[in-house]
């Protein structure tokens, strides 16, 4: 690992970021399968234990905090047991929750995954994806303003109702006025709604849907990257490609292709959260887009080695970089 990357990781620990978006609770039920149900052709899982983690935008915040940076999470939760569970997990990790607004008419989003023999059997979601009300949006924006200033913004869009078109306009204006990096993890749809952000981190499927094309070779990948840059007017677009690594396209015409560094893949759950967390934190610490993408690529390689969502620490990232031959 070069001194440059060590310095970036060290500076991340001095930064303060805000994460705005769709937070959720990830619930994992672990067990074993030894028979098929006589009632239907489905496995019977004998449950042995349960774990609960932060998910969605909350997992992004957890990854930022694990890197040593200060972070404030802004979003919605319900006035329910899961909401209290989320607040407890945020407090436990040292994540600022002053931007979490309780909505009486919507439950806390919960994703429940049943895992047997280290494989996901089924997932059940409890959620309400209605657009955030004007009243709650005003509260959220007020809490965000009171919690600043920040060195970077992340917009984590899971399509659960927080990042509406109006909310995006308001938030992008805040980021532009502050003059700090603002990065969005987009949801399927018209990416023009994210116009004004510094960068985006879509996965390949999201990029394909947004551009209405199939990415099958270097030319179609480059075409998608250029279309997204034009459509969003972002300074850079980082397309994550699973086992094919990542591709970074910049407005100045430069592009970088990073092969995956993952040697073992157990679970890709939350890998995108890790990518945007490390990428944005590095940008807030003064890293170039290419260096930030390189750090994010190494962090993603660590995240997919674990079952369920994972928050990669600064020490883990430094160790991964130490065994690598260096930046590509």
Describe the protein in words:
This protein has 328 residues and is an alpha/beta fold. The chain has one domain: UDP-N-acetylmuramoyl-L-alanine:D-glutamate ligase. The protein contains 10 helices and 13 strands. The protein has helices spanning 3-12, 57-66, 81-93, 134-147, 165-178, 204-211, 218-232, 271-284, 289-303, 314-322, and strands spanning 16-21, 23-36, 43-56, 70-78, 96-103, 110-116, 119-126, 152-156, 182-185, 199-200, 236-240, 246-250, 255-258. Strands 5-4-1-8-9-10-11-12-13 form a 9-stranded mixed beta sheet, with helices on both faces. The longest helix is centred in the last third of the chain and has 15 residues, at 218-232. It is globular, with a radius of gyration of 19 Å. The relative contact order is 0.15.
CATH arch. level architecture: 3-Layer(aba) Sandwich
Question: What is the number of domains?
Answer: 1
Oligomer category = single chain
- Unreliable stretches (pLDDT < 50, length at least 5) are none
Please tag this protein with its features:
four-stranded mixed sheet, UDP-N-acetylmuramoyl-L-alanine:D-glutamate ligase, alpha/beta, 10 helices, 328 residues, 13 strands, nine-stranded mixed sheet
Layout of helices and strands:
Blueprint: H1 3-12, E1 16-21, E2 23-36, E3 43-56, H2 57-66, E4 70-78, H3 81-93, E5 96-103, E6 110-116, E7 119-126, H4 134-147, E8 152-156, H5 165-178, E9 182-185, E10 199-200, H6 204-211, H7 218-232, E11 236-240, E12 246-250, E13 255-258, H8 271-284, H9 289-303, H10 314-322
Parallel strand pairs: 1-4, 1-8, 2-6, 4-5, 8-9, 9-10, 10-11
Antiparallel strand pairs: 2-3, 6-7, 11-12, 12-13
Helix pairs in contact: 2-8, 6-7, 8-9, 9-10
């Amino acid at each position: 690992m070069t001194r440059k990357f060590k310095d970036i990781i060290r500076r991340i620990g001095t930064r303060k970021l805000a994460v705005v978006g769709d937070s959720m609770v990830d619930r994992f039920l672990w067990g074993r399968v030894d028979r098929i149900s006589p009632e239907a052709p489905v496995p019977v899982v004998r449950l042995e234990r349960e774990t609960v983690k932060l998910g969605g935008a909350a997992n992004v915040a957890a990854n930022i905090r694990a890197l040593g940076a200060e972070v404030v999470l802004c979003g919605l939760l319900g006035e329910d047991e899961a909401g209290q569970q989320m607040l407890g997990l945020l407090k436990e990790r040292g994540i600022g929750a002053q931007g979490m607004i309780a909505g009486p008419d919507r439950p806390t989003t919960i994703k429940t995954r049943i895992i047997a023999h280290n494989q996901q059997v089924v997932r059940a979601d409890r959620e309400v994806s209605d657009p955030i009300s004007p009243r709650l949006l005003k509260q959220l924006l007020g809490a965000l303003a009171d919690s600043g200033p920040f060195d970077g913004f992340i917009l984590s869009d899971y399509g659960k109702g927080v990042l509406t078109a109006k909310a995006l306009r308001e938030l992008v204006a805040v980021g532009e006025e502050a003059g700090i990096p603002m990065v969005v993890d987009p949801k399927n749809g018209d990416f023009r709604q994210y116009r004004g952000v510094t960068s985006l981190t879509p996965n390949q499927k999201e990029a394909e849907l947004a551009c209405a094309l199939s990415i099958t070779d270097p030319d179609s990948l480059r075409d998608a990257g250029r279309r997204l840059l034009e459509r969003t007017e972002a300074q850079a677009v980082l397309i994550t490609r699973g086992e094919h690594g990542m591709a970074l396209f910049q407005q100045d015409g430069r592009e970088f292709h990073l092969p995956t560094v993952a040697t073992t893949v157990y679970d890709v759950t939350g890998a995108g959260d890790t990518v945007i967390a490390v990428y944005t934190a590095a940008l807030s610490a003064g890293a170039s887009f290419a260096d930030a993408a390189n750090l994010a690529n190494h962090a993603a390689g660590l995240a997919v080695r674990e079952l369920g969502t994972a928050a990669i620490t600064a020490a883990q990232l430094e160790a991964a970089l130490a065994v690598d031959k260096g930046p590509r």
